[in-house]
Amino acid sequence: MHDGRATPQELSLLDYSSLRCPPSLIAGAAVLLAQASHSSAPLSWAAMQQLTGHSPSALHEGMRMLLQLQHYSSVAHRHEAYQPLLFVRDKYAVEGWLLVSVRSAPLAALPPMPAGF
Asked: Do the domain assignments include residue 82?
């Protein structure tokens, strides 16, 4: 078995603490994470705030939570509490899903909050 990572959005469905977050917050945070990972353009915090109705600070916290879940999925084989995350990680570690769970996004890669928010 490889040491891949699951997609953050789907991992949030397996974590009870993420139930406190509205789906629009999870989706907005996931879009910002994808933009940060795959684009050199500045993150569109204002546009995401307008689309989701969530403040940049709430979206930033959602991004942190999703990255943390992704990290947990990478160590799930060593911690029984995180083992349900293995299913999602393995699901997206195939060519048909473009091996998205194999990509790494460390918590340290969390983009900084924009100034003025």
From this structure: yes
Give all strands (DSSP E) within 3-92, no chain letters: none
Which residue from 101, 100, 77 is spatially nearest to 89, judged by alpha carbons? Answer: 101
* Per-residue pLDDT tens listing for the chain (117 residues): 444 555 566 555 556 677 788 989 999 998 888 888 777 788 888 899 999 999 999 999 999 888 888 788 778 778 887 777 777 778 778 887 667 667 666 555 677 776 766
pTM: 0.73
Q: CA of 102: how far to CAs of 2, 71, 92, in Å?
A: 8, 12, 8
Residue 114 lies in a domain: no
Domain count, the chain: 1
Residue 3 structure tokens:
């040491």
Neighbours of 97 (CB within 10 A): 12
As separate numbers, helices (DSSP H) first and strands (DSSP E) second, the chain gives 5, 0
Is 101 domain-assigned? yes
Write out the residue range of the structural domain in which residue 87 sits. Answer: 8-108
Report yes or no on 113 lying in a domain: no
